[in-house]
Amino acid sequence: MSDEYDVKICCMGAGYVGGPTMAVIAKMCPRVRVCVVDLNQKQIDAWNTDELPIYEPGLLDVVKTARGRNLFFSTDISGEIQKADIVFISVNTPTKTQGIGAGRAANIKNCELCARTIAEVSTTDKIVVEKSTVPVRTAEAIRRVLKCNDKGLNFQVLSNPEFLAEGTAIDDLESPDRVLIGGSQSPEGLAAAEKLASVYANWIPRERILTTNLWSSECSKLVANAFLAQRVSSINSISALCESTGADVSEISRAVGMDDRIGKRFLQASVGFGGSCFQKDILNLVYLCETYGLDECAEYWNQVVKMNDYQKKRFSEKMVAKMFNTVTGKKISILGYAFKKDTGDVRETPSMFVVKDLYAEGARIHVYDPQVKREDMWSEMAYTCGISPDTDPKLDAAVTTSPDAYAACEGSHSVAILTEWDEFKTLDYEKIYKSMSKPAFIFDGRNILDHDKLREIGFEVHAIGKPDPNAFDDL
Ligand code: UDX
Ligand code: ADP
Q: If you average pLDDT over every residue of the chain, what do you get?
């Protein structure tokens, strides 16, 4: 080990998890050398500029603090693994699209490939940390691949799941609720866990660093995401009931969330949850339960995903129903395409499903999102829905990406708010109303607008779990 650094880390995978996590470790631990490597040269090149490949508030400042000091980005995967004491595996593990477990199991191909590369190129002992969300017992697969090396090297495998949420990643990493480290309970395993814990202890209080066995750690990540997603699906199921009965879902969230035993977070009814984790992790849990013959448990968790699918579909069906049962040829403005605010990430975004449904109905769709790139919309739609301008040339003409919200709304029949970007709250809705076809509809899929004010302007407003004042005399 060089005198300059106490520990050397290599992180395989420079994506939404690897990039921000390593940047924060480097910022917080000047005596730890951190190098993030990736197969994708373009991705690495972008990390080495001020046009980072992902949008995350505060990330650029953190990167600039440490880049060139003790934070590096490189495609020299072998060289960086060789230098490292600790190698993080932080690669994508998407849901399988074919073969055994298709549509449910996560594909750990990339993790296994990383383990094979580590085994092949290493010349010294390593601690290998599984950071990507993986099916329970993936560490066992990694361990076995690593053990097959014939160089007599010792590899300790740890699980250290990431709990950051996109859009708030820097805060989540700088002040996490907890850091979880799972490892073997052997003396070598405990020593490896302690070495990783001592890196985090540079800025995180010891009582927040939990150590467990490997399987508990892997499983905790799936369970945490399943519980969070379950809360969103639970409140979304109530939003449907509210729209039928005249109750207001925000009032219910407030009343229910004030019970300390329940808590108020993740009770915001919406057009549905998206993102790369919730659905993938629940399906993973479902597959795991099925594998062990626990069919009732599998069905219980599967219902959370089904409810989310229902919520997304219910939203687009309501739009069509309210607009006189037809949107054919109508201009519809979609404000927000990212799966949540403060990110440009579109994986599993509910907007994509609404756009797909409206396209199938023959609408002309104009999308505005402050961070989403058109090519990312298409690549995610091709991956998840199997349609793209290549397979369906009419899609390109039917969907316009607008430079700003006003251009997207000009002349449209309806506006749908699908991401809760702050800037949508302060748009000039009088101006938007004047530019639209009448009757002008607003469908608020995030409940972020002042609905009474919009109605005063003249809009017909429909929101999630909010009673329609025209439908209930007593409101
Ligand atoms: C999630 C977990 O929160 C994080 O701990 C884990 O590491 C990765 O998965 P992320 O997917 O980035 O993070 O965002 P999150 O804030 O959890 O939101 C997920 C989805 O749920 C978004 O589409 C969001 O809009 C939606 N959501 C969230 C709601 O619809 N209502 C809520 O009350 C909260
Ligand atoms: P996540 O949200 O889990 O971080 P991303 O897709 O944003 O997922 O990032 C994963 C990154 O891992 C991608 O940039 C991809 O190129 C990289 N990657 C995948 N396989 C490997 C590998 N074998 N070695 C190095 N990097 C890899």
A: 95
